[in-house]
Design a protein that fits this description.
Elements (H helix, E strand, L loop, with lengths): L1 H20 L2 H21 L3 H21 L3 H7 L3 H12 L1 H9 L3 H14 L25 H23 L6 H14 L8 H4 L6 H30 L4 H24 L9 H14 L6 H21 L4
Helix pairs in contact: 3-7, 6-7, 8-9, 8-11, 9-11, 9-12, 11-12, 12-13, 12-14
């Protein structure tokens, strides 16, 4: 029992260390945003659609975390209670769902997540989704668009699932828009890896033209990718085309910002992990009217910074 408690205490120490490493301001933002999400979950769980969606999200997270975690062999080696260690962690992760199930008398969702947690805790296989690749050749993606070629190979399954889910649930009004937002975030994750300098020079030496080409190329590919969802939504809900157009515009802006931010901090052959976090911040700003102008100001600032940064590598002094 002492070993079990020690292992769990390590988890909290790891969490605390992460919060310390990201700094006080970011830590407060993460904690505040987490509290806001928990409040939103409690508020929306009373609606059947959102209850199903939230439960599915938590169940998917539990499965994904367990299949990709690399400490299974270590936990089994140091403790004979490996199953209970995994199960306890997944029960703690699902506490919002269990609490809401009690609050709104929805035992089905709690039972579903509990069954998933029990079943997945018995699985001892580790799967690295990053090693699963599809499409050795992608003739429909330009050879210069290395972000899409690399990202699409690794994340084609996630994109296909989002497309299929959005189309399948299109009779529920927000489903296509939610699918498009998720796909946009997946595409934004393509831009976390910086290409070597020589590949960047293929786009020319004018910094602003390089950024414009990159953005146009990415937006064009995104529109093609989500076109089935756009067509289906406009066919089912023509009266809400203006709201849907705003959602798509926000997604396009987020993708453009992702590219600009990547090159604002660009260093050849490195990884920009914080790109994903700042993209989430940009999207959240558009949901809060008082801070909606902030992403536009940030885009203007980072565009100038990206241009100055690229000049060091493209030698464009115009």
């Amino acid at each position: 029992m002492k070993l079990f408690l020690y292992i769990e205490s390590l988890r909290f120490r790891q969490l605390f260390r992460i919060l310390v490493e990201i700094g006080l301001i970011r830590a407060l933002f993460v904690l505040g945003f987490t509290g806001y999400l928990l409040f939103a979950i409690i508020e929306f769980f009373n609606f059947a659609f959102y209850a199903d969606l939230i439960s599915f999200g938590f169940a998917s997270s539990v499965i994904s975390i367990h299949l990709q975690r690399k400490d299974k062999a270590f936990v089994r080696k140091v403790s004979s209670m490996a199953f209970f260690v995994f199960l306890t962690e997944y029960l703690l992760l699902g506490l919002p769902v269990y609490f809401c199930s009690i609050l709104y008398d929805s035992a089905f969702h709690a039972l579903l997540l509990l069954i998933v947690s029990l079943a997945i805790s018995l699985v001892n296989t580790t799967i690295s989704f990053r090693q699963i690749t599809f499409f050795k050749t992608l003739p429909f993606i330009p050879s210069s668009n290395i972000e899409w070629k690399s990202g699409f190979r690794r994340k084609a399954v996630y994109i296909a699932l989002c497309l299929a889910g959005g189309l399948w649930l299109s009779h529920i009004n927000p489903a296509p828009a939610v699918a498009i937002i998720i796909i946009t975030f997946i595409v934004c994750s393509f831009y976390t890896e910086n290409e070597p300098e020589i590949m960047l020079q293929n786009y020319g030496y004018d910094t602003y033209m390089v950024l414009l080409k990159k953005i146009f190329q990415a937006v064009f590919m995104l529109i093609i990718l989500i076109s089935p969802l756009i067509i289906k939504f406009l066919y089912l809900y023509p009266n809400e085309a203006d709201i849907f157009a705003f959602a798509i515009a926000v997604c396009i802006f987020t993708l453009a910002f992702s590219i600009i931010f990547k090159y604002a901090v660009y260093e050849p052959a490195t990884i920009v992990e914080r790109n994903v976090l700042i993209n989430g911040f940009v999207l959240i700003c558009f949901l809060i009217p008082y801070v909606a102008p902030l992403p536009i100001i940030m885009l203007i600032y980072y565009t100038g910074k990206a241009s100055r940064n690229l000049k060091k590598y493209l030698h464009a002094y115009n």
